[in-house]
Amino acid sequence: MAIFFVFGCIESSTYKDVSLLDLISNPDEFQQKQVCISGVIENNSISGIQICLSENYSGTCQKNGVLANICGVYQNSSIEADSIDPILIITTSRDVYYSNETMEVRVEYSSLKDTDALIKVSAIENAFGQPFIGETKKTKIYKGINVFDFEFNTPSCGECSALDPGEYFLNATINIESNSFETYKKIILESEGNVTENKVTDNDILINDSSITNTTLANAFLVEYFYDPACQKCAKVYPVIDKIIRSHGDGVSFSKYNVKTDEGLELARKYKIPGIPSIVINEKKLIAYDDYDGDVAELETLLNEAIANPDQENGEVHDRIILSIPSVFVVGFLAGFNPCLLAILAFIASVTLATTGKRRNVMLIVLMFSLGIFVTYLIVGIGLLQIIDQSAALQSTITNIIIILITLLGLWHIYDAYHIKKNTESSFYTPKSFIRLTENITKNMSLPAAFFMGALFSLIKAPCVGAVYFVILDMVRSGDSAGILYLASYNLGVVLPVLIIGAAIAFGLNPEKVEEFRKNRRSAMRLFTGITLIVIAVLMYMEII
What pLDDT score does 2 carry? Predict the structure, then answer.
């Protein structure tokens, strides 16, 4: 979780600490007001808010890659800064690097006290989600400015490293006690024009006029080979792989994957391979090109040893749970069987029947109510994803915040299960004004108002209904899937139980039975949801999901 200290705002009592989200979402509220914000400076702006210097500013101009606390007057998407206090700075000697060059990185941190810290620098993820550059240090920091120097070799651009020339992020993180600070700098990686000549064909990999095709054999060792038809290194090492696979006969189940195909790329990202060629044994052990550095004799030894000891892991392959639309839909469907939703559904049905006596009207009201929930959660989810995607330097912090939030909601659900047993009432409070509004809307049979009621309910009862939603948001933004489709699938799952029960009431089910079911089982549902949320938080912390 990121907590930013305020480093000496001028007359800080006259300035209001404002989050970037609040400032971006409600700019009119802060017009002509003195505010302090924290963020990473890039091209004289922070998340689109221009930083100008006021007449009172006497400091130096800050470069890109500076996490700073800025105090000044906000007006029309800009802040006229009276003070800029750097917190965390990451710099490099140049902005443009070529393959296989030395890159010197400096990290500076302004501390308020002497303490211990964990500093991490990482950069340049390849097409498979594997960072080429990374180092973590445990160190002592002292009050004042602390300077730390790192040195890395830039990776090779080209097909075999699964890395294209272009712009990449260089990230710096410092963890101190319960606080985390993050900043980033953009660098450009360029290739020196290495051209590959030999190509392995896409449909078949040939050696000695023969071909091995993908095979899956029962009780055999699984060997998965990742290559690119344009990769010279792949062409060089494949004869060794071919020889060893043939020597083991039916004892080895062999599959080859072109990383330029959707199937190959998805699996390579699952394993987070560092580049190509790469070999994965039994989904556990990884043999990368750097392990033998082109020495085919060493490759032969490594591959034979890996097949002989297939259960030995080397910690490089991360088998994470892969998100799928059906699984997201099922999670949403289970979340829809929620005491809060069942309570409002039974109330709406009872009031509608008492007012009109027509069960058909129940279905219409429930349909519009559900549509309100669906649209609201979809819009909110898309908005949050866009905000998260624009915060490139805060990805790990966002995950930590989500984990903490899910844990707190899980504990709240468990406490509520106890509270219901003890007091018969839930600690998830519903405002009486909302209950009165719901009753009036239902009596008047206003379909647009029922839609609004669903939207309002989804926001008021977010801690009760939307806890699992945070998990889905984190899984969607961490993957490469179509976010809107996944969010829509989850939201459809949430409202489907409401629609099913609403239809059942319309065709004769007594709403009192729904309410009785809810009251008798709401404590158990709360306990189950709470335990599930905590388990999910643990799995997210362990990077299993």
Answer: 37
Q: What string of DSSP letters covers 147-210?
A: EEEEEEEPPPPBGGGTB-SEEEEEEEEEEETTEEEEEEEEEEEE-----------SS--EETTE
Give the domain extent around 153. 94-190
Band of the pLDDT at 162, cuts 50, 70, 90?
A: low
Task: Indicate whether 277 and 346 sit together in one domain.
Answer: no
The DSSP letter of residue 544 is -
Q: Where are the beta strands (DSSP E) in 333-445?
A: none
Say yes or no to pLDDT of 217 above 70: no
Report how far residue 479's alpha carbon sits from residue 472's, in angstroms, rounded to the nearest whole number. Answer: 11
DSSP tag of 394: G
Report the alpha-carbon distance of residue 273 to residue 162 in Å, rounded: 9
Question: Is the residue at 77 inside a domain?
Answer: yes
Per-residue pLDDT of 251-290, as tens digits, reads 778 888 888 888 888 888 888 787 788 888 888 788 888 7
Average predicted confidence (pLDDT) for the chain:
75
Within-domain flag for 264: yes
User: Do 118 and 136 contact (CB within 8 A), yes or no?
Assistant: yes
- Asked, for residue 495, whether it belongs to a domain, the answer is yes
Q: Judge contact between 538 and 376, C-beta under 8 A.
A: no
Task: Say if residue 105 is exposed, middle or buried (CB neighbours under 10 Å; 0-12, 13-18, 19+).
Answer: buried
Phi, psi of 476 (to 5 degrees): -70, -45
- My answer on whether 351 and 500 are in the same domain is yes
- Whether residue 376 sits in one domain with residue 301: no
* Least confident piece of the model among 196-200, 326-330, 456-460, 522-526: 196-200
Which DSSP category does 101 fall into? -
Tell me: do 477 and 330 sit in the same domain: yes
3-class secondary-structure state, position 413: helix
The pLDDT score that the predictor gives to residue 428 is 66
Q: What is the C-alpha radius of gyration for the chain, rounded to an integer number of angstroms?
A: 28
Tell me, yes or no, whether 176 lies in a domain: yes
Q: Are 277 and 385 contained in the same domain?
A: no
Residue with the two structure tokens 């106890």: 418
For the chain, the 3-state helix, strand and coil shares in percent, each to the nearest 5, are: 45, 25, 30
How far is it, in rounded angstroms, from Cα 25 to Cα 517? 41
Cβ(328)–Cβ(493) below 8 Å: yes
Residues 108, 76, single domain; the answer is: no
Instruction: Please tell me whether residues 145 and 31 are part of one structural domain.
Output: no
Which one-letter amino acid corresponds to residue 420?
A: I
Tell me which of 66-70, 144-148, 215-219, 365-369 is least confident: 215-219
Buried b (16+ CB within 10 A) or exposed e, 40-57: bbbeebbeebebebeeeb
DSSP bridge partners of 144: 111
The per-residue pLDDT for range 64-100, each reduced to its tens digit, is: 778 888 899 998 889 988 888 888 988 888 888 887 7
Question: Structure tokens of 495?
Answer: 């409202």
72 forms beta bridges with 35, 81
